[in-house]
Write a structure and sequence with these properties.
It is a single chain. This protein has helices spanning about 1-10, 30-60, 65-75, 90-125; strands at about 20-25, 125-130. The protein is mainly alpha-helical. Strands 1-2 form a two-stranded antiparallel ribbon. α2 (about 30-60) runs antiparallel to α4.
């Protein structure tokens, strides 16, 4: 792979005080992409759980759940209450399930995108990236 980088570096004819290197990204390692997408998915999962709990606390503090319960009670016979289905343990369980599903989906998508990029490189030749040293 260094031969491709050497050829691209020779093509760069501009002289400047900083050394500039043009490299072509021709391969993304599958397991590296899986690991990076897994780490990104963990960050997204943490944000999901925390944000859902924060939204629950805001809704609970403003009294929106009790107002909706009163509205539903006037429309029905009063046997259904929202508070029995919407409490902190249920919100935590729901957000944990969503976070785990999101973790799996984002990890698989990272692997699929790496595979698609590696196949597309055969047609397009890769992504040209320029670097400079300061």
């Amino acid at each position: 792979m260094s031969t491709v980088a050497d050829k691209l570096a020779k093509k760069s004819s501009s002289k400047s005080s900083n050394k500039q290197v043009r490299l072509r990204l021709v391969y993304i390692d599958f397991w590296s992409a899986v690991k990076m997408s897994f780490l990104a998915a963990i960050a997204i999962a943490i944000v999901t759980v925390v944000s859902m709990v924060m939204v629950y606390f805001v809704v609970e503090t403003t009294g929106l759940i009790t107002q909706v319960d009163e509205l539903v009670g006037t429309l029905s016979d009063g046997s259904f209450t929202l508070q029995q289905y919407l409490s902190l343990p249920q919100v935590l369980a729901f957000s944990a399930v969503i976070a785990i599903l999101n973790l799996v989906v984002v990890t698989v998508l990272g692997a699929v995108v790496a595979g698609i990029y590696n196949l597309a490189v055969k047609v397009t030749g890769g992504l040209l990236v320029g670097f400079t040293s300061n």
